[in-house]
Design goal:
Length: 262
Amino acid sequence: MSSPTSTMSPMPMNDLLAQLKHIGLKTIPANLDDFLARATKARWSPRMLLEQLAQQETQDRSRRSLERRLRLSAIKKFKPMADFEWDWPTKVEREVIERALTLDFIHEARNFVLVGQNGLGKTMIVQNICHLAVLAGCSVLFRTAAAIVEDLRHEMFEGRRRKLRGYSRADLLCIDELAYLSFDDKAADILYEVINRRYERRSVIVTTNRAFKEWNQVFPNATCIATLLDRLLHHADVTRLEGDSYRIRESQREAATRRKKP
């Protein structure tokens, strides 16, 4: 007497898709027919099939993670450092900037501060640093000082505390255009709180067009400026750019070109 045998029918495709999605896979469910067709045509072994599945999911997760970090960073469009004209500023410490581009200061929880007049490429430099940090797997926030103040000014206690945690947790925070505008006491307190929460824990990049001794003019009635600068500069590489604005030069060149046209 022969023993009965049981056969397992293949799982319906809809159920398979649902289960793959349920365990967190995204790439394979979206391309399942193509993936199975390639596996069949190439006669993948079970081990090779699992290796291909893991590889594609890992690559796609890395891609999505990079896209998410770039989106949250808000770095926006920028020119690469290959386009930076090192011989245009009358003063530039190239070795300091190139050292910052290695991202070593992030691992040391040091700050990086760029001081100089408008139009010398400060924002371009720090955008490149931030972009490299994102590519290296860091969480980055690129914001103007005015945007940070506006983001936190009108929040109630719980909302502000939650957002401050976000500013403090990012691996790298860039505060662009600090001291470009005049701020009141409340704005100064907000910026102090942001920098203080990151003090000796995570790195901050700051660009400013004002010498530090002039910050009391930007925050005329604030009592925390000395302490803010103390926290910011305690572990910091500070470098200064001097010279005329790139943008003024470009505007003059464009005007000259238009004048030459018949």
